Amino acid sequence: MITEIASLTIDPANAGEFEAAVSKASAVLRQAAGCRSMELTRVTEDPAQYRLIVQWDRVEDHMVVFRESDLFGQWRALAGPYFVAPPKVEHIESVGRYF
Amino acid sequence: MITEIASLTIDPANAGEFEAAVSKASAVLRQAAGCRSMELTRVTEDPAQYRLIVQWDRVEDHMVVFRESDLFGQWRALAGPYFVAPPKVEHIESVGRYF
User: Of B16, B28, B9, B29, nearest to B80 (Cα)?
Assistant: First the structure.
């Protein structure tokens, strides 16, 4: 299991519309092979910044299988119009959960 | 509940020692008021980058109560020597978990 953190920048004036679009787009991501969960979070220090947190079985399920599928286009068609900067994506793996 | 994401940069040559130091330092963080969980993760795309993910009851429990306590010094004494850049910290709040 691997976790994607996508850093998304939007105009805070569009926050409500953007959040509704992501909620709708969750139905697309849910269909992606190896996609296990999706959560939208907002950065407390900067209301223009969101972090989308998605769990995948493997990095390839996100970066190859999903990105090369029609689902990626559907996802971007819903959420992409709100991005005011290119999304930044990284994947993290747990080293240890201590408590 | 709020989640801290601390971006930590280390020399990958010291990864093993750093991870052991963070494991030890978890005993310090566990004592902090309002601190609910702590997980260390590593960025797949860049082995110099770690994301420490900590759940707090409130931002103030992290940024005021913890930072002004002796525990912060103890934490930094253990993990800080491995940082090769100043840590970057942000807090995120859940907007929605969709599946």
Answer: B9
- For residue A73, the domain's CATH number is 3.30.70.100
pLDDT of residue A99: 96
The alpha-carbon radius of gyration of chain B (Å, integer) is 14
Q: Which two three-digit tokens encode residue A43? A: 């950065």
Read off the pLDDT of each residue in A28-56 and give the average, rounded to a whole number.
98
Q: What's the helix, strand, coil split of chain B in %, to 5?
A: 40, 35, 25
Please report whether residue B97 resides in a domain: no
Q: Indicate left, alpha or beta for A90 from its phi (over 0: left) and psi (-120 to 50: alpha).
A: beta
Q: Is B30 on the interface with A (CB under 8 A)?
A: yes
Coil vs helix vs strand at B37: strand
- pTM for this one? 0.96
Tell me how close the Cα of A77 comes to any Cα of chain B, in angstroms.
Answer: 18
Residues of A in contact with B4 (CB under 8 A): none
**A65 is a domain residue:** yes
Contact A42 B91 (CB under 8 A): no
> A80 near A25, Cβ under 8 Å?
no
Distance CA A83, CA B2 (A): 24
